[in-house]
Design brief:
alpha/beta; about 20% strand; nine-stranded mixed β-sheet; Rossmann fold; globular; about 35% helix
Length: about 250
């Protein structure tokens, strides 16, 4: 695993799951990390315990991003690596699977999810790209549901397909700024957003630490605009090509 000594890293959704694991893994390797999260009750204690500094940020809110960008400019100056990780599903983990279906759509929950999963990426890029150091990189947490059908939660799948399309389409523009961007699209991870009804004896979930290690790997790859699938802990991530691209693994 690479040394990140002296690198400045920003992680959203940092108080739990993959985000918290990325804070810990990158801090262990020498990085200075600021974790962003909306959960005021726990975000500070979790992020600090993982070795990072915590800052409250609602990724779905423009004003919150504006304040966050000012803070990061003061503390870091420039950012080397950005992990846009915050994400939720359409219903709470305790809800029955029927509540995840399109026919059960609640407008407030739909707006909340798109605010986190789509706006959180777009606003994050808009406000933090000016702070990215040339040669730096961005990893967006997508989902296997962003490259394959996911009939458990179709609207969640829609948001992750949107993220995949954005990442693939930004390669040229960000390349002109000497920046790279990739999407990591994992299968099920043992985190808090997994519906309880999917936690059956047959279900196998990856650990957040294992996926976090893939994020750190993607910080350093020279690929950009790529969608990386991650389906199990035993198999490393590989690029799922867009139509017309050649398939390859790392």
């Amino acid at each position: 695993m690479s040394d990140f000594s002296g690198k400045n890293i920003v992680v959203t959704g940092a108080a739990s799951g993959v985000g918290a694991a990325v804070v810990r893994r990158s801090s262990e390797r020498g990085a200075q990390v600021i974790g962003l999260d909306i959960n005021k009750a726990t975000d500070g204690s979790v992020v600090n315990a993982e070795g990072g500094q915590c800052h409250h940020c609602d990724v779905s809110d423009v004003a919150s991003w504006q304040e966050t960008a000012r803070m990061l400019a003061d503390r870091f100056g420039l950012i080397d690596h950005l992990h846009l990780n915050a994400g939720i599903q359409i219903a709470s983990p305790e809800a029955p699977l029927a509540d995840y279906q399109f026919r059960a759509m609640d407008l407030a929950r739909y707006k909340k999810m798109t605010g986190v999963n789509i706006d959180g990426v777009v606003y994050g890029l808009h406000h933090l790209l000016p702070l990215m150091r040339p040669g730096g990189s961005i990893v967006v947490t997508g989902s296997l549901a962003g490259i394959t059908p996911y009939d458990v939660d179709p609207l969640y799948a829609m948001t992750k397909h949107a993220v995949t399309g954005l990442v693939r389409s930004l390669k040229r523009e960000l390349g002109e700024r000497q920046l790279r961007i990739n999407a990591l699209c994992p299968a099920g991870i043992d985190t808090g957003i997994i519906p309880q009804a999917q936690r059956t004896q047959e279900a196998v979930f990856m650990t957040a630490d294992n996926v976090a290690d893939e994020v750190l790997m993607l910080f350093n790859v020279q690929d950009s605009g790529a969608t990386w699938a991650k389906v199990s802990e035993r198999k490393p991530a590989w690029i799922v090509p867009a139509p017309g691209q050649k398939k390859r693994s790392r």
